[in-house]
Amino acid sequence: MKKVISCLIVAIPVIFLLLSACSNGGSPEEQVRRYIKAGEEAAEARDVTIIKKLIAEKYSDDHGRTRRDLVAITARYFFTNKNIHIFSRIGELVFPEENRARLQLFVAMTGQNVSDLDALLNMRADLYRFDMDLALEDKEWKLISAEWRQAGPEDFF
């Protein structure tokens, strides 16, 4: 019985994450924001399975990376970083077509909790800018392409 309860304790948040990420309720902007939140929570939980579900099967980028490559990069990051905390800011979010979204996402990844921008300035964090393209596939937002590079603290203001 204890095993069943512990499995439910793990499964319920995962199911909630997937439903909130994929739900088509709300405006497209709200849906994309939920998608980003689900990705952050999956990264903090170091859950490659959920990350993989957020990436389109036909993912490709200018560097020739595929979905499989992106999942492998993520898995390596999770393997080398035992504690992951995410602080992010959406810089720009536009919808060039009805079922497409393009956004800039600034992400600080660190081994300790980041409560706000002041806390971020006082700690060591990996800072990145992600330029992401999403598509709505079967009522679920999926990452279809992305580019990333290092960002600076000024990008978070």
Structure description:
With 157 residues, the chain is of the alpha+beta class. It has a single domain, classed as Nuclear Transport Factor 2, Chain: A (Roll). The chain is 40% helix and 30% strand. The N and C termini lie far apart (49 Å). Mean pLDDT is 82; it is low at 1-23.
Summarize the structure.
The chain is α+β, with helices and mostly antiparallel strands and 157 residues long. Helix content is 40%, strand content 30%. The protein has five helices and four strands, in the order ααααββαββ.
Provide the CATH architecture. Roll
What is the general shape? globular
- Supply the CATH class: Alpha Beta
Secondary-structure element order, N to C = HHHHEEHEE
Low-confidence stretches: 1-23
CATH topology: Nuclear Transport Factor 2, Chain: A
Radius of gyration: 16 Å
Give a quick account of the main beta sheet: strands, pairing sense, barrel closure: 4 strands, antiparallel
Strand order of the largest sheet: 1-2-3-4
Please tell me the overall pLDDT. Answer: 82
- Total DSSP helices: 5
The total domain count is 1
Structural class: alpha+beta
What distance lies between the first and last C-alpha atoms, to the nearest angstrom?
A: 49 Å
| Beta-strand fraction estimate | 25-35%
- The number of distinct β-strands equals 4
Proportion of helical residues = 40-55%
Supply the key terms.
157 residues; alpha+beta; Nuclear Transport Factor 2, Chain: A; four-stranded antiparallel beta sheet; disordered N terminus
